[in-house]
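# step 3/5: fold
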Amino acid sequence: MNFVKENFSSIFEEKKSKFIAYLFPISKFDDVMKSLKEEHPKARHHVYAYRYLNEFDQIVENSSDDGEPKGTSGKPSLNVLSGHDLINTAVIIVRYFGGVKLGTGGLVRAYSDAVNKVIDTAILFKYEKILFKTIICEYSELSKIEYDLQQLDIQIKNKFFSQHVLLELESTKEKFQKLNEILPRHIKIK
């Protein structure tokens, strides 16, 4: 699965109609939609599609034709996102009507092409589920453990010092498994 970390846009034209596609992280959806409606008040349609992972690791999808004939714009845009295995990502396509009707097949192709074009310009990142774990160690072990964490690219989010040292960590399941293989046996990842 892939996702984007920033906003991307591109313009696709078909028979005098202009399709401006905006690809961005799902967390910005409401702000981007509001901004685009203000920026493009004369546009006929603001079609959207998005996919994201919910708290149960299920993919949630939604799309809107925004006045285009049913199934000719939102669903094809969603299919392109799905085909590129994008998650936590949204696309909004602003359409300016050029005076020539495209027909249902023409609309499906135009919206799909607009979304494919913006994805081609985007920088995609591979999705990895982030887990949060803790470990407790002795002060004397801290520097060695910090070195191992750095080598495995495991982030230390917090350190708490009391009788022992408690480290709050953030990383992927695979990296935690590698850490578990090199830690002393008495230190457990929780």
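# step 4/5: annotate
DSSP finds five helices and ten strands in the chain.
# step 5/5: archive (pending)
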